[in-house]
Structure formats: C-alpha cells, structure tokens
Amino acid sequence: MTSETHPIPVDATAPVGFHKHDHDTCVQTALGAAEAQCKKDGLRLTPVRRKVLEMLLQEHRALGAYAILDRLRDAGFGSQPPVAYRALDFLVQNGFVHKIERLNAFVACSHPGAEHSPAFMICRKCDAVAEAKSAPAKGILGAAARAVGFEIERTVVEAEGICPDCTEKA
Ligand SMILES: [Zn+2]
Ligand SMILES: [Zn+2]
Ligand SMILES: [Zn+2]
Question: Are 28 and 7 in contact (CB under 8 A)?
C-alpha cells in the first residue's frame, strides 16, 4: 500500500473488476468513500445520485443511460431522462463514475478518492469492465507531449479484449 487514504486494499496498479473479491465490502467501501468526499467538499449526494452510484457499483460492468433510467424508474425515482443525466453528470464530474466512450456507458470508479487517469479493459464477450490506473503523462505519450511542449490534461484508455472468465469458458 503506497497510499494510506486509499479505501480499497489492493495493489495500486492492480485492475479491479475481473477477479473474485469481496464485492459487498467493495460496494460499501466505495459508497462510504463517496459520502465522505461529498461531506468534505460540501457536495450533496442526493438520494437519486446515491442510487445511481449504488446501481453502478453493484456491477463491474458499464451501464448505458437508458438502462440506468429503467432501474431508477423501477426504484421509484420517476422516469424523466434529465433526472438520470443530471445525476450522472454530477457523479462523473466528481470522479465517482467514469464514462466509457467506446460503449457510451458508465461505470463506477474502482479507485474512489484517488487522483488518477483511468484505463479500462473491456470484455467484448460479456461487457465486464476492469479499471486500472494509468499514468500516461509518464509513458511514451508523456514523453512525446513534453517534446512538443504539450500539457496533457486528460487521456482516454480503453482496451478491448477477452476477460479471464470468458477465456476460461472458451
Ligand atoms: Zn466489487
Ligand atoms: Zn477511477
Ligand atoms: Zn468476459
């Protein structure tokens, strides 16, 4: 453990999501971290925001906005798309949820509270998503950027392939 504030006891570079783990603890820890951060930053984790985060935490899988809206409706939060979109905007802006551009869908952050650039591994068979941390500013891209005086603010890393579960089943 390099970071004492990191709420999930994993190797900081290990991707979370594919391998079996104590998922109840995983969900509770992430919800707790989000609540603590909101309190610290004076943000309001309203019931609908909390519900959307909880739904995404339940699965290490990306959900599209419409799937989220369906589940909100089932949970009694109404069925107005802006409700879901506003909750997602809040969660993405504050780093609790990431958008996966490739799938146009959302996934809960696996490293809440830690400053990071996410890198995703997306299974093309079962849509499972694991999040690893990347440090593109330190890699080859970072070197190229420095060479031309470009300052990287954000990168999107989305690798597509086959997850260990699907490889075993094959
Ligand atoms: Zn989990
Ligand atoms: Zn993340
Ligand atoms: Zn898979």
Answer: no
